Structure formats: structure tokens, C-alpha cells
Give the backbone structure.
Amino acid sequence: PLVTIGSFLFALAFAIYPLREMYMVSAPVLSVIGPVLCAGFALIVIGLFSGSPGPATPE
């Protein structure tokens, strides 16, 4: 589930970014694109690593 949410945020940020660059450079509301991109990437990474077995323990 985290990978799906992260992928959606990642794609949304990349879809909005060209519109910001072309039309709304001075709009302060669209300055959240960077944090949304970082949050999406972080959720993708957390989602991918949460299913890994973790470090091996000696027996």
C-alpha cells in the first residue's frame, strides 16, 4: 500500500511540475511540489523495504 501511495504522489508531482514552470512560476502555493516529490519517493522506499526480512541473526 505504501508503494502505491508513494507512486501516486511521485507521479502527481511530476505531472504538476511542468505546469508550474510554464504558467505559475510566482504562485507560492505550488512550492510544495518538492516536498510532495520527496514524500512520494520516501513512501516508495519504505514500502519496498518494509517487506524485506531484515538483517540475518546468528544462531
